[in-house]
Design goal:
single chain, alpha/beta, five-stranded mixed β-sheet, 7 helices, tRNA processing
Length: about 220
Amino acid sequence: MIIPEDERSGEPIKGERVLSHPDMIKASEWILSEKYEPPVRDFCIFVPCAKHKPYHLSPSHKIYDRIIFGILEPKEAHIVVFGTCGVTPRELDEEYPFMNYEFMLGRCDVVSVKDEFVRNESKKLARYLEKTRHNYRHRIAYCMGDFRKAMEKALTMTDIPVTIVPKWETMEACIQPDKPFKYGSLSRRPYLQDFSDALTSIKGVSKRTVGVTEESLNDTDWYLI
């Protein structure tokens, strides 16, 4: 248990306040401190958090897992979720407060809130990368939007390399300027193909062709943080 029940704040974990809620900060610090011991794996895969909780049962994460574990063995990969939740190893996704907060960053259009998120999340990511410098051989981040901005900013704070996908050229080829989310969902086939290609390239195995399912075509979970 990260935060014992008698030590939890009585304040609801909802809305923009999630980003500075005392229990979210406390849980994040627990992970980034010496209290959490990350596993040693060949790959660390960073993926966005999701509205549906626990994350590993969300539609988007099930799609990511089909890509990841179609190429890697479970013992090779450590899945780390990032976003509104901070930096959360996915094996902790059923813990409080990660099961309990409610905030949709993808629907937030307040510039100051988004800027605060990128600024704070990038620092957390950089700390996690430094903390796990010797735990992983390879690191891949699958992300867009403010999550991608946070990861890119984190990489300016450390010399630890992270492969970020989808590729910019793929995103530009898929752009739909008239849509609220012009780059669409991370569950789109071209993006998933980039994800798959990054994994197979680093692992040194043949490329796989990513298929499209009814679930991925109708996925709306990706931006509901």
